[in-house]
Amino acid sequence: MRLPAPRGPITALLFDHLPTGPHALPPAPPAGPDDPFQDEDLQLALFACYEIHYRGFDNVPETWEWHPSLIAFRTRLEDRFERRLGVLVPPRVGVTDVPGALARLVEAEGGPSLAKFVQREATLEQFREFVRHRSIYQLKEADPHSWAIPRLSGPAKAALVEIQADEYGGGRPELMHAELFRTTMRGLGLDDAYGAYLDVVPAITLAVNNLMSFFGLHRRRIGALVGHLAAFEMTSSQPNRRYSAGLARLGADRTTRRFYDEHVQADAVHEQLAAHDLAGRLAAQRPELAADVIFGAASCLAVERLFAEHLLACWSAGSSSLRSGRTAERAPAAG
User: What's the whole-model pTM score?
Assistant: First the structure.
């Protein structure tokens, strides 16, 4: 993956400097007046800063990863991101029963049902759009939450490793969830290369991913990262059942649907592990993190709600949810 096209003054400056060796970066230009979660320039710049900690970019030297100048640049972006997140999701206080609080939070979630629309009404092209959006995360599925492993101990750590082992295929590369998603992409005639659709996904899709990386790369937000994973797993099984049903309605074969079918079963188990053995045990071990666990879960649900609203609003208006027209791709195998 190479650096994408810039989307404003912040990314223009950053992407101009990153291909050369590490050096002092100029200060980041002021962010625009828009909501940070809708700010294309800010979200792409933050995503690029985070990606250097994952697989990076082919045209960016690896020596940038911990360079103080880049970390300072990223911190200024994160400050605006975190401030807006605190407005979107007010801090939690007085949390004691973490598994119970997580269950109530998920039960009360009243956002738009993207999964129901995909199951019953989405066209094949809309489903392919949905997969393009999700590919930004799914092709590195589980990696952001794995930052928590060295920061936990005892039963909570064991629970997280059990969840992540399933995500990574239990030692079988072909069963890694990222690889199963590649199979879905190929079945839909999409480019399954890592980051292939980075240029066309909008700010809110990047924000969904940046939220995980923000929590994961900051040890002070370990509670929020665990809460994010708990909410992620607790709201996964039924939607994935709907996604598979939607693909079946559109004529996709079992191989193309396998990624979603696998999550129906795996995440039903992960839901209990994440809520009780991971989040519950962490809060019992470190009660001071209980409120941040719930904050992380609420943040996950809130940003996913914004993502769903974006897709459904675009589709309702008869327009694409992506930033540009269709890219040249193989013909879809389903439909």
Answer: 0.94
